[in-house]
Structure formats: C-alpha cells, structure tokens
Amino acid sequence: MSRNSFRENEVSVLETNEKAYLDMCRYILEHGAHKGDRTGTGTLSTFGYQMRFDLSKGFPLLTTKQVPFRLIKSELLWFLKGDTNIRYLLKHNNNIWNEWPFKQWVESDDYTGPDMTNFGLRSQQDDDFHEQYKEQMNRFKERILEDGTFADTYGDLGNVYGKQWRNWESSQGHTIDQIKQVIHDIKTSPDSRRLIVSAWNPEDITPDRAALPPCHILFQFYVVNGKLSCQLYQRSGDVFLGIPFNIASYALLTHLIAEECGLEVGEFIHTIGDAHIYTNHIEQIKTQLSREMRPLPSLKIEKEGKSIFDVEIEDITLDGYDPHPRIKAPVAV
User: Is 237 annotated as a binding residue?
Assistant: First the structure.
C-alpha cells in the first residue's frame, strides 16, 4: 500500500468514527435550541440525532480528549453483574455515579453536616463551599466502603441499569435476565427482530425507585454476514461528558456479546432523543473541536474459557490509545 493510500485509509477510519461525534458537537453549537433543564444549568439542545461507528475500523474511544477507559470498563461490568450499589464502583476507584446517592444522603434526616443544597452548581461558584463539598463527599465514600449498612441505605441507586438488564421484575412476579436471554436468542435465532434489551420500566422511573431514570433506555442487536451490530436509543445525552462514555461502553458491550456468540463485530449505531450541550460545557467543546483527531485504538479481550459474566477489568485492554489531554468540566446533577 502506498503512503497516500495508507493516509486515505486512515482518514476514512477517522471519518467513520470520531468524526461522527465531532460533527454532532458542531451541529448542536450551530443549530441547538436554548432550553432549561432539571439541573438549572441550561443547555443547547437538538432532538433526534444519530451516529454510526464501524467497529471493525478501530475502537471508538475519543482521541480529541482523554476518556478514562478504566471507568467505562468497571461501569459496564457493574451493569453486567446486575449490581446497583456504588460500593463496587468505589472499590475500583470509579466515582462517576457518586453524585446521585450523595444527594439522597445530604437530603436525608440522617445527614448533619453543612448545607449541601444545589451542591453541583455551588461548588463551581464558591471555592470555600467547594472545599466543604469535597470533605463531605470523601466522608460519604469512606462510609460506603467501610459500613455495609450505610452502603445498603445510601449507596444503592435503586432500579437502574444492572437491575433492569439482569433482574427485570414482571407483573406476574417473575424475574427476567434480559442479557442472558438476548445472548441465547442471538445464538439460536440470529435473524430475529426481537433481539432487544430494555432498561425503561415505567414503574421504576420515580425518584423513590431509581436515583436517575435510565438515559440509555433500549438497545437492539442485529446479525448479518457473521457480524453483530447494536443500536442504542438514548432518551437524553450529555454530549460532552456522558456521550463519549456511552459510545465506548456500548461498543465494548457489542464486542463482548459478539465474542460470547462467536461473531465478528459490525456497527454501533447511536440514536439520541435530546442531545444537549450544557451551557457550562460550551468552551470545553470548542477546545475539543480545535484539536486534530488521532488514530483510534484497538480493543483486546482475553476471555478464553470465561463467559461474559466472568470477565474481569484486567481482561479488557486497549492498544494504541494516544489521546489529547483530558478536558475538565463539571457534572450537572
């Protein structure tokens, strides 16, 4: 292959993967509508956006900013275990779900520390408050790890993804393991149009049953020519912080399910309802868009003799991940 041909191929790979995400960012900056939101932060929003990622052409982990793959791995394995308590995540130094159970604790009668009302916004605006917030959050995490009773009370997120994927409660009182079922169906009926896993249970989206109603609510698999593809429908997506995680997480899930079923990987298709950029992420997005894309990494899964449910974090690795530096941004809670 000539140098020019290699370069053309490399550009093609980038254009079919990371460019799809960057194009969405540009579109929302240019055409997004100003909308209020639950957190009080404000967003630029568009409705109904779709991206496609060819998983045979590199693993779609963004290179225009560093995305911590170890957090994506531990979160996905947490989902696949059917776990809903952040204790597992904290044991693996994963803090991405902390804010929601922390909010439940500081709003409870058991909390006796300083006022943490609107801690997400206040910690960005007030340095003294930010120090108080960090101190209370560290105490909260320590108690989750050290006190099983406290973890059971305040560390559990309720009927979120792990519960719905692995232990869906039917109206007849039975439980359904949707992940095991869809693996069985892919193996036995690969042409089925019902290869679906749903996280959206209308009974379980109230605050007393789930800390956060599922954002990625339904995904469907599709088998053709020995390749497994996956399409996700996501009702709501934080474009700067959340969506890069979701892309990589569902790409990883597709790889894992394909391995389990003896298939190659095809595409990951990401369909988003409300795709939004928080107003306090706009400058970060612009910084990211100013950077050049780099070649995507490749994924390695060492699961010989293991089922998808036995895979450990160290069994999943990346080769060739060379991103631009991380870009910090606050989480809207």
Answer: yes
Edge-to-edge order in the sheet of strand 43-54? 33-35, 43-54, 264-278, 227-238, 216-224, 196-198
- Give the number of residues written for the chain: 333
User: Binding site annotation covers 238?
Assistant: yes
Token pair recorded at residue 48? 């109904």
Is 3 annotated as belonging to a binding site?
Answer: no
For the stretch 314-318, contacts whose Cβ atoms lie closer than 8 Å and that sit 24 or more positions apart, written own/partner, are 316/73, 316/252, 318/59, 318/61, 318/69
- The answer on whether 236 is annotated among ligand-binding residues is yes
**pTM, rounded to two decimals:** 0.89
Element of type H or E holding 70: helix 69-80
Residue for token pair 């989480």? 331
Block means of pLDDT (10 residues each) for the chain, length 333 residues? 41 66 98 89 95 96 97 97 96 93 94 92 87 96 96 93 92 91 98 96 70 86 98 97 97 97 98 96 97 96 90 96 93 67
Known catalytic residues are 215
In the chain, the domains with their CATH numbers are 3-85+158-319 (3.30.572.10), 98-156 (no CATH)
